[in-house]
UniProtKB/TrEMBL annotation:
One of its GO terms (molecular function) is translation elongation factor activity. The gene is efp. Involved in peptide bond synthesis. Stimulates efficient translation and peptide-bond synthesis on native or reconstituted 70S ribosomes in vitro. Probably functions indirectly by altering the affinity of the ribosome for aminoacyl-tRNA, thus increasing their reactivity as acceptors for peptidyl transferase. It comes from Venenivibrio stagnispumantis. This is Elongation factor P. Keywords: Cytoplasm, Elongation factor, Protein biosynthesis. Belongs to the elongation factor P family.
C-alpha cells in the first residue's frame, strides 16, 4: 500500500495510482458548483501508455501516491528497441523501452541529463530538460533581414526532429527548443 493523501493536497507532477496504474498529474482544478458537492478534476498522464486521462474525485476522497523514484541519468545510446541511460552516481545502466519514449526520443542528445522514472526499480519513462540547445542540420537558406515576420520554415535538428523556425535561421545555427511542445524559442550565439 502506498501513501494516501487528501485529494485537495494534489499538486502538478505528483505521481498517483488510479486503478493500480501509475499516473503523473499534469493539471487539476478544484470545482465548487453552486449546488451539490465540491469536486476535483484531475488530468493525468498514464506513465505506462502515455495517454492523458481526466478523472473526477469528490473533495472528500483521498488518493494513493505511486511508489515512484526519479533519478538523474545521462543518455548513452539506443539500439532500436531500448534507450540506455546511465546513473551518474552508481554507474548502473537502465534500458527504457522505445515505445515509452516516442515523443521524448525526438529531442534526446547523447550525454543529455534527463530524469528517469522508476516504478519499483523498473524504468517506465523519462523527462527531458524543459529547454535544450540544438544545432540545425538542414533547412532552406536563411532570408537576411527577415526578422519581423512571423513566417516560419521547417528545420531539421541534430536529433533528426523537424521543427518550425523563423526564416532567418541557417544550417549550423544553434537554437533553443522547448522539448515539451517541440517549439522554437530563440537563436543562441
Amino acid at each position: 500500500m502506498g501513501v494516501k493523501i487528501d485529494i485537495n493536497s494534489i499538486k502538478r507532477d505528483m505521481f498517483i495510482l488510479v486503478d493500480n496504474q501509475p499516473f503523473r498529474v499534469v493539471g487539476y482544478e478544484h470545482v465548487k458548483p453552486g449546488k451539490g458537492q465540491a469536486f476535483v478534476r484531475v488530468k493525468a498522464k498514464n506513465m505506462k501508455t502515455g495517454n492523458v486521462t481526466e478523472f473526477t474525485f469528490k473533495s472528500s476522497d483521498s488518493i494513493e501516491l505511486a511508489d515512484f523514484e526519479q533519478r538523474f541519468m545521462n543518455y548513452s545510446y539506443a539500439d532500436g528497441s531500448n534507450y540506455y541511460f546511465m546513473d551518474t552516481n552508481t554507474y548502473e545502466t537502465f534500458a527504457v523501452p522505445a515505445e515509452l519514449m516516442e515523443e521524448e526520443a525526438k529531442f534526446l542528445k547523447e550525454g543529455m541529463q534527463v530524469v528517469v522514472f522508476l516504478d519499483r526499480g523498473n524504468p517506465i519513462g523519462i523527462e527531458l530538460p524543459k529547454h535544450e540547445v540544438y544545432e540545425v542540420i538542414e533547412t532552406e537558406p536563411g532570408v537576411k533581414g527577415d526578422t519581423a515576420t512571423s513566417a516560419t520554415k521547417p528545420a531539421k535538428i541534430e536529433t533528426g526532429a523537424v521543427i518550425n523556425v523563423p526564416l532567418f535561421i541557417n544550417v549550423g545555427d544553434k537554437i533553443k527548443v522547448d522539448t515539451r511542445s517541440g517549439t522554437y524559442i530563440e537563436r543562441v550565439k
